């Protein structure tokens, strides 16, 4: 088992956040544009950033196995975003990136590296969801090999918004027929968008 082992790609270092990264973490999580489609409100202070780090990162790093990465450019090794995979089902893959680094393939590069790591470590599959109003996020999911499965509505918390999500999945253990069904089963409104499978989205 491993807990956020450091990874390197052509342009990036992927590593754990530390207390020395609080200012960088604050800059990532305070931006309304970066956090518009994420399940929390933008941070308002460094005190909130410290608590966020303790609750969402330090606590995970104390576990036997976790994948909660800071995305850093090799020049400077300063966090500009994050990428994570949850250990609990449905093994949710998620990421966020400061706006000035969008449209450079950074999220895709980081996502591919982390996906390869969790596959090496034996995770059977990963899933990811995105708001239909944020289709570029689906581009990242496709670029790392995930496939669209279905769409569903959810009253999304804590922002209390009615959102239509698209679910993507990548099976890592050879079980190509597996589809995570919980969201489909729990949502009164669920459907398959045939046109999504044929559309190519640009990567972030």
Automatic annotation (TrEMBL):
InterPro entries named in the record: Acyl_CoA_acyltransferase (IPR016181), GNAT_dom (IPR000182), N-acetyltransferase (IPR051531)
Domain of life the protein comes from: Bacteria
Keyword terms of this UniProt record: Transferase
GO molecular function: acyltransferase activity, transferring groups other than amino-acyl groups
Pfam family, one: Acetyltransf_3
Domain N-acetyltransferase positions: 12-168
PROSITE patterns, alphabetized: GNAT
Name by which UniProt lists this protein: GNAT family N-acetyltransferase
